[in-house]
Amino acid sequence: MDFDLTPDQAAFQQAVREFATEKLKPGAGKRDQSGEFPADLLAEVARFGLMGLFFPEVYGGGGKDFLSYTIVVEELARADASVAITLLGHTLCAAHIFAFGSDEQKRRFLPPLVTGEILGAWALTEPTGGSDAAAIRTEAVADQDGWRLSGTKYFITNGSHAGTIVVMAVSDPALGSKGISAFILSGTPTGLERGKNIDKLGFRASDTAALILRQVPVPPDQLLGEPNTGFAQAMQVLDSGRIGLAAMAVGIARACLEESIAYAGKRHAFGQPIAEFQAIQGMIADMGTEIDAARLLLRRAVRLKDKGERFKREAAMAKLFASETAVRAATKALQIHGGHGYTTAFPVERYYREAKLCEIGEGTSEIQRMVIARELLKETG
After folding, report:
1. Dihedrals φ, ψ of 206, to 5°?
2. Mean pLDDT over residues 93-122, rounded?
3. Hey, which residues does 123 pair with through a beta bridge?
4. Alpha helix segments (H runs only) across 64-196
5. Residues 104/221, Cβ–Cβ less than 8 Å
6. pLDDT-based confidence at residue 128 (cuts at 50, 70, 90)
7. Torsion of the alpha carbons at 359, 254, 244 and 353, rounded to the nearest 10
């Protein structure tokens, strides 16, 4: 399997890197401190064509492969992970509609999403249903006008800013996880209350909100796919989402490594740059090796997805290893920076806070290990 980028992909990567370095990186720390949502920057990301990169051109997308999308996520995360995670949440919404929507739904909802005119959100998680996605309690009750949704969603990326939201709700409680359906909410429907941005450890400039649904009306033509197929749909969307999160983790880890190399070359102790000390070199070597390994796992999963082959196990492996690599890289970066790393004067404290979420979002590390084990047992059983 060839993991090298084509000349076009390499040129595209360089263009995105320059954009992210120039536009996103300079104010990332201030936005993190203030919690300011980067609406103006997202408009620039959209103008660059990055909000719907791998969707077909007929819907206004870039028509590129999923590998190009992961390149974008990695480069954005290296500069400002809050912008990267905003793109991840947006993409989950658009990808769900693209994969399971009718032709009419795709014609109606995808163009404003893939061009970035409208921000998307994907609402699965609830206060009592995180890792156990089948335990959601939001209800979907059919009536003569379609459906009524009632319940609470939590930790929803882009929740208070999204113009289109894909919501999973229980449509037949007797069927358990097989009784969940997916719905499209658009605009400002009656009965939908959006919470404020949750005060978080990291990703503070990313919009993460609760959604309270009180008898929210949904027309029948905004049911995604067949009734009671929403859980299976969500699991497929999550497989791709895990690849995206792995790319974000690699980007954060890369930022840790780059900042550490720069600092170690400038910081002097005992009459020489600390980069000359074996202990520092060992940490840098470990960071670089693990980042390369994480990216290779990521590229393997991406190649399988782009070829239309099964990639559930590979996506879980990439997400697991990349997220834990980001945490280890952030820990080493802070250690290399010493006391300075514990202050807001250097960005590694922000990377340290952001890296941890990579082990939680899109399924915790424990869930990834469960998925991997099940897939391996199936193959050898």
Report:
1. -85, 140
2. 98
3. 167
4. 66-79, 81-100, 103-114
5. yes
6. confident
7. 40
Burial of 273 from C-beta contacts in 10 A (0-12 / 13-18 / 19+): middle
The two structure tokens encoding residue 64 = 């590129």
Cα distance between residue 158 and residue 203, in whole Å: 12
* Beta bridge partners of residue 272, listed in sequence order: 269
Per the CB < 8 A criterion, the answer to whether 207 and 160 are in contact is: yes
Q: Which helix (H) or strand (E) holds 371?
A: helix 365-380
Q: Where are the beta strands (DSSP E) in the chain?
A: 120-123, 139-143, 146-157, 164-170, 180-186, 192-194, 208-218, 223-224, 268-269, 272-273
Q: What is the pTM of this model?
A: 0.96
- Mean pLDDT in residue range 42-70: 97
Taken in order 150, 156, 162, 163, is the CA torsion positive or negative? negative
Per the annotation, the verdict on 75 as an active-site residue is: no
- CA 347-40-319 angle, to 5 degrees, is 50
Mean pLDDT across the chain: 96
How many C-beta neighbours within 10 Å does residue 6 have?
12
35 Cα distance to chain centroid: 18
Say which of 362, 366, 375, 379 is annotated catalytic.
Answer: 362
Does residue 161 sit in helix, strand or coil?
coil
Question: Looking at the predicted structure, is the pLDDT value of residue 131 above 80?
Answer: no
Residues forming a β-bridge with 147: 142, 218
DSSP 20: I
- Which amino acid belongs to residue 149? L
- C-beta of residue 311 within 8 angstroms of C-beta of residue 317: no
DSSP for residue 197 = P
Residue 154 CB contacts under 8 Å (≥ 6 apart), including other chains: 125, 126, 127, 210, 211
Give the integer Cα–Cα distance in Å for 251 and 84. Answer: 9
Q: Does the pLDDT at position 50 exceed 90?
A: yes
Residue 381's pLDDT band, with cuts at 50, 70 and 90, is low
For the chain, how far is it from start to end, CA to CA, in angstroms?
26
Summarize the confidence of residues 62-82 as an average pLDDT: 98
